[in-house]
Amino acid sequence: MAKTNARAKKVGSAVAAIPAALGLVSGIIHGGGGTSMVRGAPSAITAGIFSPVCSLPFGRVRNPPADDHCGIQGGSSDPAKQDESRAKNNFCAAMGVSQVVTYRELIDLQAQSVNMPKSIPNRQVVRNLGEGKYVSYIALIRDAHYSDVAAGEAVNCNIPGSSTNDIHIVLMPDPNDTDECHSTTAEISPHYRPASWTPENLRALGKPVRVDGQLFYDGSHTPCSGSSRPNPKRASLWEIHPVYSLEVCEMTDLNQCRNSTNPADWTPLDTLLSSEHK
Questions:
Q1: Who has the most CB within 10 Å: 168, 201, 216, 247?
Q2: What's the pLDDT tens digit per position in 7-44?
Q3: Which residues contact 185 (CB under 8 A, 6 or more apart)?
Q4: Helix%, strand%, coil% for the chain, nearest 5
Q5: In the chain, pLDDT over 70 holds for what percent of residues?
Q6: If you ran DSSP here, which 8-state letter would residue 163 be given?
């Protein structure tokens, strides 16, 4: 991940971001002077309220079905799962400039973590490989859909429904490749999710996208290997989760978009959708 994206990003609250990125925030106190953080046992978190501890990377509009009923540690009583949920709910990695991550690097990271256990008691082992970094990834969207809508998942407190669960994005590295076993993944959290970020809008784009967000290792799944084609299909368990921003390329050629140095070649998803609906 040596390449560095030339686009500067707005810096959120650096002081608040560091504890969240390390998974140390376990409780939030609200008072007349604002919001402050306290450290303690995971049970100290108010399970039913999601309160960001840094400036969000997108508009701060509550999504009540998720934000009012599920906190940062999710709904599991397993400490390892709670730590995983805190990592999945990290909106505070956007400090400075994002790093460009390539498909090859995501595949290489998978090779380095092939023996990683499903349940990780201490996520420092994946943080050492890159989890928590603010990255930028360019690919084509093959599919986007709400995931785990029937029963929910631990990070979202096992609440069923589309408004309370992630949007799973299947990203392809090659326009001529339709095999999702070669895909990588991005996940849009339900927390404070912009209303225009829907699977329907994502599937309709038809152009390369630039996805910015946190690099995350999702050991809950299994990558494709040989004749094994698990569901969901993917080449690497390293993904962009949660997504902080989505931009659409003006060109249709994926390599041209990857090599672009002109900021005008990219339009934020919200801006594009707003112009289309005028």
A1: 216
A2: 444 333 332 333 333 333 333 222 222 222 222 233 33
A3: 168, 169, 170, 171, 218, 232, 234, 239, 240, 241
A4: 25, 25, 50
A5: 82
A6: T
For CA atoms 114, 120, 122, 127, the dihedral sign is positive
Burial class (CB in 10 A: 0-12, 13-18, 19+), 261: exposed
Q: Which residues contact 62 (CB under 8 A, 6 or more apart)?
A: 68, 192
CA–CA gap between residue 238 and residue 67 (Å, rounded):
26
Alpha helical stretches, state H, 147-188: none
Do residues 220 and 34 touch, judged by C-beta distance below 8 A? no
0.70 cut: is pTM over it? Answer: yes
Query: What's the rounded Cα separation, in Å, for the pair 91 and 191?
Result: 10
Task: Specify the 3-state DSSP secondary structure of 231.
Answer: coil
97-276: CATH topology: OB fold (Dihydrolipoamide Acetyltransferase, E2P) (2.40.50)
Q: What residue segments make up the domains of the chain, in order of their start?
A: 9-88, 97-276
Main-chain dihedrals φ then ψ at residue 98, nearest 5 degrees? -75, 155
